[in-house]
Amino acid sequence: MWRVAFFLVALMALPLQAATVNTLYQAQVPLPDSDRQTERTARVAALQQVLVKVSGQRDIVSNDVIRKALENSSSYVSQLGYGNEQGQPVLEISFDSEKIRTLLTQASATFWSEQRPTVLVWLVEEANRDRAIVWDQSGNSLQASLNLAAAHRGVPVLLPIGDFQDVTAISVPDLWGGFSQPIANASTRYQPDAVLIARVQRRSDSMQLAWQLYPSSPAAMLDGNSASLEGRNSGDSVAAITAMMDQVADNLASRYAVQLGGATEGGFAIDVANVRRVEDFFQLEKLLKDLSSVASVNASHLQGDKVRFAIQLLSNEQVFARELSMEPRIQAQPAASLVRDVAFDNQSAEDTTPAKQEGMIVPTSREGSASEPLSQLDVSGTQAATSSIGLYYWNPNA
């Protein structure tokens, strides 16, 4: 029972919103001339960018397997083109996602999926003894530096819009003093997964940057369940903000990235209710298989509208719960619901005669099955059912 409790507590403490980053496998690097060696150097730099984004590791290039792969960077390219950025020629490259994932697995590195926590950034600038909040679409150069640094690490960021609701909910002293309650209240409307407060002091030739990251939701900040990470950086605006975003990304990656290199020993199972049609089953199965923490998924039991899935992981259950919490179509049910379903566990353990409610063999094709009730699946075979540690509700229309 301790395993169930740990899993549910971990899940309920996790963020419920996330953003999909569609540019993880793309990079844009300067191309000062058309020399063949220059292009090769640019291609290597682009692959390094992508590997850092996808792995979440700044030092990924120190891995021996990765270093060797960089010598053959062209084999990972899926598309290559030439462009122009602010009057300068650039090389635009897309890399094969499957090959990148395989490479990271071979290197026993980490993998950070496209579903990533959204970070709300409260940015306050002090210049000439005046302090002001940098709002979205303000045209402030700090925002451009922030967006570029965040993009290089694959971290989705947003700045508050600065409308009437914002300016009445928060003040510069609140942000400069790092007062968590008003910051959390003002942040709630944006439903971020993390909140970053950055305070910039301009100097004649440099800037000082002090920042504070709450790596959880505003609700966790209000409950006192979110400890903050603090840091200081200095230099020109690009260098200071890049250093801050590197540290922020490192922290988030340590929470969300999955260790690759082999499945964990043993497994567990989850029960999912409201799986009523065959198409629901296929969509749910695909969702589970696509999670970066999952090694394999097998349906082991069927009863009514409830399906039990046996799960083998590439990581641990907490990482699995964190990934699952970002998917709106599947929702965790409270522990009381799990207790009410003890009969489902008991029947799984006691029944040994093959029967339709005991086990299932899933068809290998969706053809002609989209509108069929789930009960029409071939369930003539029985698989051993592992004890479930969580109950979920499937909502395909979410």
Mean pLDDT across residues: 82
Bin the strand percentage.
Answer: 25-35%
CATH architecture of the largest domain: 3-Layer(aba) Sandwich
Helix percentage: 25-40%
User: Could you list the spans in which at least 5 consecutive residues all have pLDDT below 50?
Assistant: 1-16, 338-343, 348-368, 379-385
How would you describe this structure to a colleague?
InterPro entries: DUF2066. It comes from Photobacterium arenosum. With 398 residues, the protein is an alpha+beta fold. The protein folds into 3 domains: 89 residues; 142 residues, 3-Layer(aba) Sandwich (Rossmann fold); 127 residues, no CATH class. 36% of the residues lie in helices and 26% in strands. The protein is built from 14 helices and 18 strands. Strands 7, 8, 9, 10, 11 and 12 form a 6-stranded mixed β-sheet that branches. A 5-stranded mixed β-sheet has the order 15-16-14-18-17. A 3-stranded antiparallel β-sheet has the order 2-4-3. A hairpin with a 2-residue loop joins β15 and β16. α1 runs parallel beside α12 and α5 runs parallel beside α10. The longest helix has 20 residues. The N terminus is likely disordered.
